[in-house]
Design a protein that fits this description.
mainly beta; Methylamine Dehydrogenase, Chain H; 4-stranded antiparallel beta sheet; 28 strands; about 45% strand; globular
């Protein structure tokens, strides 16, 4: 889908520019590259990409497929978590092919790539799957996990992998061979996203706001409670360590590691996804994508 210009944002936009699209349904996943290119995963209409900051959008396939997350592999490789399994692109998201052999549960909610090259997928009722051949085949990796409703994944700089499964956060220090619950002081609610800052602190987006851990997930504490709507859908951390949160009532930011949050525009828009790269911050919801430099 192509357009000619940015569209004006709402009065409370907080300096966000409403891009001209994509018009394929609400945006559930975003990735912003260092060169400013944007991948947008939509609910029911596949993947769109823009190479000019959102002024023009093209669909890159996956018609009628819902896309919930992206993860970058090596080189030009990307992985997409969808309702129909994992898809891989070897050309920066311009085209995709399904790579889900071995998955008995294909409703994939999140994907992540470990520094070893192992790819992780969190599935709706099948827990965690792993692939050691760039997504070509998969096997379950749920040792230590009881109920297997998987929603979120994050690779820590120390090599550990964190997973939001059912109403707990789990940690694996051996590439998914064994998972341990990390739920001290953590509410028994779904984790929608997990982010890690430059200092190694973890942040979990939940139905009850954002929680922080400074000890690799061993214990958690609630951050500020200034959200108009307590459910947080996504998190990104910018180059200056600002935490950005997506909520049903717009975007919130914290510059003090979550001690306090401030509304930062789009309060009349549900925001479901965030992306950051090359100094560009993108917010996805319904309708379309907003960007801010």
């Amino acid at each position: 889908m192509a357009g000619s210009a940015f569209q004006p944002a709402a009065a409370d936009s907080g300096n966000w520019n409403h891009t001209d699209g994509p018009y394929g349904g609400s945006v559930q996943a975003l990735h912003v590259a260092q060169n400013g290119s944007i991948l947008a995963g939509t609910l029911g209409q596949g993947v769109f990409f823009s190479t000019d900051g959102g002024e023009n959008w093209l669909q890159s396939g996956l018609d009628n497929v819902s896309v919930f997350d992206f993860a970058r592999g090596s080189g030009d490789t990307f992985f997409a978590a969808t309702q129909n399994g994992v898809y891989r692109s070897d050309n920066n998201g311009r085209s995709w092919r399904r790579t889900s052999q071995g998955m008995d549960e294909v409703r994939v909610q999140s994907v992540a790539v470990h520094e070893s090259g192992r790819v992780f997928a969190a599935t709706l009722v099948g827990g965690i799957y792993v692939s050691d051949n760039n997504g070509s085949s998969w096997s379950q990796a749920n040792e230590g996990i009881s109920l297997k409703f998987g929603y979120a994944l994050q690779v820590h700089p120390n090599g550990s992998v964190f997973a939001g499964v059912t109403n707990r956060i789990y940690r694996s220090e051996d590439g998914g061979g064994q998972w341990l619950p990390m739920d001290t002081d953590f509410p028994h609610v779904r984790t929608n996203a997990i982010a890690v800052n430059a200092d190694g602190a973890l942040f979990a987006a939940t139905q009850y706001g954002v929680y922080r851990s400074d000890d690799a997930g061993q214990s958690w504490q609630a951050t500020g409670t200034q959200f108009a709507d307590a459910e947080v859908y996504d998190l990104v951390i910018t180059q200056d360590n600002t935490i950005v949160a997506a909520t049903r009532e717009g975007v919130y930011t914290s510059t003090d590691s979550g001690a306090s949050w401030e509304a930062d525009g789009l309060s009349d828009h549900p925001v479901y996804s965030l992306g950051y790269g090359g100094g560009v911050l993108a917010a996805g919801g319904n309708p379309g994508v907003f960007v801010r430099n």
